[in-house]
Amino acid sequence: MPAQPLHPWFLLTAVLCAEASGQSPGVPPPLPPPVLFPAGSVPSPAAPAKTSLAPLSPPSLAPAEPDAAKPGAAQPGPWKHLLEGNTAPGLKGIQKPDFLSAGWKIRGGTLSLSKEIRESGRKTGGDLVTAEAYENFELSFQWKLDVAGRSGVMYLVRSSTGTAPAGHLFPLVDDVRHPDGLKGGPVKRTGSLYGVLPPGENKRLNDVNWNQGRILVQGNHVEHWINDEPVLSYELGSAELKKAVLACKEKLGAFFGTKFKSPIVLLDGGEDIAFRDLKIRQLPFP
Q1: Cβ-contact 111, 102 below 8 angstroms
Q2: Domain that holds residue 87
Q3: What 8-state DSSP symbol labels residue 152?
Q4: Lowest mean pLDDT: which of 155-159, 229-233, 271-275?
Q5: Which residues contact 120 (CB under 8 A, 6 or more apart)?
Q6: How many other C-beta atoms can be found within 10 angstroms of the C-beta atom of residue 212?
């Protein structure tokens, strides 16, 4: 379709507007003159505004603080000494309530039971039990045996007045002279779980001096220590422990291998035995 010519009125309006603005109709307005700068003085483009940023610190490589040191973390309880001077406020007799008149003696913080030759192999002073029961605990003690000596520390134990206790036993034995050590094999030697699990080969004993023992029970985890070295660890209820219990030739109660609150027992094993620095503390549940 051919373009239509512009109406005369439209052309007249355009001319009048151009004259009012001082321009000729149909001529575009002139551009403003360029700004001239002396040579070498052309300003650089404005730099972006600088923001002050602190340098990033490198990540800390320090080890995480242990739970025991963190605020609010459960802490072990205070140590409780079971022997004080010439008294034993934390202990009582099982078979013989007045155990200090039955053969046990306390002198200078050392608890001892001596036997005459005719008393060897017999329970004369009786077993001792703590006045309190424990569930999660750490027991520390020193012990000293005579030649062919035998004793032990029991935990997770069931006992009643006048009867022999039964439970988990940390035996204290002359491994090279007592029949348990000679014929019973590793599962009946010092530091074992008596009749069930043997101690490690790293066990080191002082034959004629004091030895340091430690028993730790926390949750289902159990450890035996001798002279600052762990010699045995196991888990209550584990398949390994159940298998060892089934293979054990000793008479173990149906409760054996389970966790419950119980006292600690020091055995009169029929031979000379001495204890000192006997102490215990409660541990938090893991």
Answers
A1: no
A2: 78-282
A3: E
A4: 155-159
A5: 270, 271
A6: 15
Within a domain: 220: yes
Q: Is residue 44 part of a domain?
A: no
Q: Which of 142, 130, 154, 128 is nearest to 226 (CA)?
A: 142
pTM here is: 0.74
pLDDT, residue 56, reads 40
User: Considering the domain boundaries, does residue 19 fall inside one?
Assistant: no
Query: What are 218's two structure tokens?
Result: 């926390």
In a domain, 63, yes or no: no
Which CATH number covers residue 213?
2.60.120.560
Instruction: Say whether 172 sits in a helix, a strand or coil.
Output: strand
Q: What is the count of structural domains for the chain?
A: 1
Helix residue spans in the chain (DSSP H): 8-20, 179-183, 239-247
Residues 6+ apart with CB under 8 A from 107: 86
What string of DSSP letters covers 45-71? PPPPPP---PPPPPPP-PPPPPGGGST
pLDDT tens sequence across 246-274: 999 998 988 999 999 999 999 999 999 99
Q: Which pLDDT score, from 0 to 100, does residue 10 have?
A: 44
Tokens of 135: 């569930």
How far is it, in rounded angstroms, from Cα 120 to Cα 30? 130
Tokens of 169: 């036993």
Q: Give the SS3 label for residue 275.
A: strand
Share of the chain above pLDDT 70, in %: 74
Identity of the residue numbered 114? S
